[in-house]
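Private note to self, pasted from the team thread so I don't lose it. Backbone tokens:
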């Protein structure tokens, strides 16, 4: 994919923090209709990836959103993500006072295998009662829906602020959300992250962390084991200890709200040695650990390392630990929080828990009660022919408009 041809000049590239004044609230809106917004967002590629060759700037998407939000009368701020050239967040706010509501989504998508798609992933295609395109479910379409729900709001009618938040690099590193925390950005009292949940409110999710354990032994000729120290055999002992620890974690704590009610540890990758007739000198194991709410990822990481060190202490092996992904904390928003109660009322469904991670824990650090609630299904995310069903658009708008009425207006008669 040619990333250069998909990009264009921007009004603000060399500025670390961009503040833009609100548009004239009395002027006619130039913000396009909902489907046009979706179309332009899908056509504007913004892949984030840990592979530099695939990674793109999200500034084209930020530029679109900023222009539309200004047309709707929002004051727009575009803080750059430190250390990530070409990456920025967007914070757009209308209305004054405290509290209020945040409608949040990420601007990036995962990479895709274009040859596996029946439709062009970078075009919005309507077929079979669905809108196809990369980001329709996860989750550019939600950003367009948030703007549509806010289209007729003005600073004069709001009694608490409404904020539209668009972040960078959720799919790869969470650097956008982490930057908001580091910068101490004030968001609002209540937030909805529009990840695909089938319009079912989610108030809890597991965390995630990924680590590498490298074992360094000594190679030698396979005809005489005493000539070396076999790192693969040491890895066998380490794996045994990891499986024992996994069982202890599972027995230690559970949460029936989750389909898998305990923390999971996955042995996802192992590589060692280079030839059958050489003693394996080095072996590396990669693991994925998904803790429950209330479990501290750093404490788990230290416990993991201590267990592995004990297995190989007083041996010829050396250990090296690497953080592959520092982790997303687990999220838990109180069952009686106002945002949870409102979501349950408007959707007619009880809140639930999911295994995938979101930016919610970072918003929580900023003092924002957060739920996950959006159209589409997580099963469509990261898949060829990702889509959003057309019949979910109107229900989504009704829920978002109801939430805006609940948290940004004194008059709640339209709840």
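Design output:
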């Amino acid at each position: 994919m040619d990333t250069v041809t998909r990009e264009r000049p921007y009004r603000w590239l060399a500025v670390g923090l961009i503040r833009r004044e609100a548009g004239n609230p009395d002027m006619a809106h130039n913000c396009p209709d909902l489907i046009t917004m979706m179309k332009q967002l899908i056509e504007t590629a913004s892949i984030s990836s840990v592979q530099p060759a695939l990674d793109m700037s999200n500034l084209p998407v930020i530029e679109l959103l900023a222009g539309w939000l200004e047309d709707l009368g929002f004051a727009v701020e575009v803080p750059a993500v430190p250390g990530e050239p070409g990456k920025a967040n967007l914070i757009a706010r209308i209305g004054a006072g405290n509290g209020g509501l945040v409608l949040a989504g990420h601007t990036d998508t995962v990479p895709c295998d274009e040859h596996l798609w029946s439709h062009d992933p970078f075009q919005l295609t309507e077929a079979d009662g669905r809108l196809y395109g990369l980001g329709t479910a996860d989750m550019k379409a939600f950003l367009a829906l948030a703007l549509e729900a806010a289209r007729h709001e003005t600073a004069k009618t709001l009694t608490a602020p409404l904020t539209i938040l668009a972040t960078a690099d959720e799919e790869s590193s969470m650097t956008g959300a982490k930057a908001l925390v580091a910068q101490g950005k004030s968001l609002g009292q209540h937030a909805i992250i529009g990840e695909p949940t089938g319009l079912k409110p989610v108030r809890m999710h597991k965390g995630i962390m990924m680590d590498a354990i490298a074992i360094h032994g000594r190679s030698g000729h396979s005809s005489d084991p005493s000539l070396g120290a076999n790192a693969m055999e040491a890895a066998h002992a380490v794996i045994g200890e990891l499986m024992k620890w996994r069982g202890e974690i599972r027995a230690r704590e559970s949460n029936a709200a989750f389909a898998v009610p305990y923390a999971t540890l996955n042995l996802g990758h192992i590589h060692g040695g280079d030839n059958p007739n050489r003693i394996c000198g080095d072996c590396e194991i990669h693991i994925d650990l998904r803790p429950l709410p209330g479990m501290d990822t750093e404490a788990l990481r230290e416990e993991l390392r201590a267990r592995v060190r004990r297995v190989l202490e007083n041996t010829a092996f050396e250990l090296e630990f690497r953080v592959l992904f520092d982790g997303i904390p687990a999220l838990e928003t109180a069952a009686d929080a106002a945002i949870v109660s409102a979501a349950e009322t408007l959707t007619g469904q009880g809140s639930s828990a999911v295994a995938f991670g979101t930016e919610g824990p970072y918003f929580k650090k900023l003092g924002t009660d957060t739920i996950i609630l959006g159209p589409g299904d997580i099963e469509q995310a990261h898949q060829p022919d990702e889509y959003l069903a057309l019949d979910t658009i109107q229900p989504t708008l009704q829920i978002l408009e109801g939430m805006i009425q609940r948290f940004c207006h004194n008059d709640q008669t339209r709840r």
